[in-house]
Design goal:
mainly alpha; two-stranded antiparallel ribbon; Multidrug-efflux Transporter Regulator, Chain: A, Domain 2; 4 helices
């Protein structure tokens, strides 16, 4: 979306972990079709509650994770499996950094 002067208009959304999103909510927030979110779920990138897409509920953190995965795919031109692997590795790095900070280490 752009403003009258042609500059991009950004929207900011602050979500708490307790926030619940439906598939439609997540698709709208990520500006993608539902099939892209379904593929992220099938690849294990997102883990909704519920058995079928029409009943899926996502936690607030899923929005950040979905956007990150979609951005990896778009910006780095990598496939879904590559994006899933990159997210898994980033999660592991963050976990290791957290553990290192807990014992007083630097990274």
């Amino acid at each position: 979306m752009t403003t009258e002067n042609g500059l991009p208009q950004y929207s900011i959304c602050i979500l708490e972990e307790q926030t619940q999103l439906t598939l439609a909510d997540l698709c709208g927030a990520c500006s993608v079709q539902d099939q892209q979110i379904i593929e992220l779920v099938e690849a294990g990138v997102l883990e909704p509650q519920g058995r079928e897409p029409a009943r899926w509920i996502f936690v607030g953190a899923s929005l950040h994770r979905a956007r990150k995965a979609l951005r990896l795919q778009r910006d780095l031109d990598i496939g879904l499996a590559g994006a899933a692997l990159a997210l898994e590795l980033m999660d592991e790095i963050e976990s290791l950094r957290t553990r290192l900070r807990a014992v007083g280490g630097e990274y």
